[in-house]
Amino acid sequence: MNEHKIKKYYITLTVVNLVIALIFTFLPSELEISERVKTAVQVNIVFHGAYQGISRFFIWVFELISKDNPNNFTFHIKFFIGFAFVMMILPFLSAVFIFKSVIFEQEYQNLFNLIFLSGMVLGGYSMKSKFKDKLTPRTTS
């Protein structure tokens, strides 16, 4: 999957995030409307922060490391690709515990964490694809 498709998924998840936040805001609840709006905005910010942070921060760290030590270029890229896989796998494991708390303890507000986790998975995938691009040599034609 290329960066263009990842951006498409990011936009789609952003729209889903906004729809869920609007539904949560206007559903009847024991929380005041200001608390519901605040929670919806916080979830939206955390989603974008997770995606943007993971997909960009580690590229910046890599560039700092490779500037100081260019000899281990391939090792650094492979390390960060492995880290990207971890960043994609851990949210799935967390989702299991979220569903457990929702099913057995009826804590439905924990479903909001799935939005944050989707941002982590997408950010990890974006990071992995950027590092794979750095690993494959480019040919000029």
UniProtKB/TrEMBL annotation:
<keyword id="KW-1133">Transmembrane helix</keyword>
<feature type="transmembrane region" description="Helical">
    <location>
        <begin position="111"/>
        <end position="127"/>
    </location>
</feature>
<feature type="transmembrane region" description="Helical">
    <location>
        <begin position="47"/>
        <end position="65"/>
    </location>
</feature>
<keyword id="KW-0812">Transmembrane</keyword>
<feature type="transmembrane region" description="Helical">
    <location>
        <begin position="77"/>
        <end position="99"/>
    </location>
</feature>
<protein>
    <submittedName>
        <fullName>Uncharacterized protein</fullName>
    </submittedName>
</protein>
<feature type="transmembrane region" description="Helical">
    <location>
        <begin position="9"/>
        <end position="27"/>
    </location>
</feature>
<keyword id="KW-0472">Membrane</keyword>
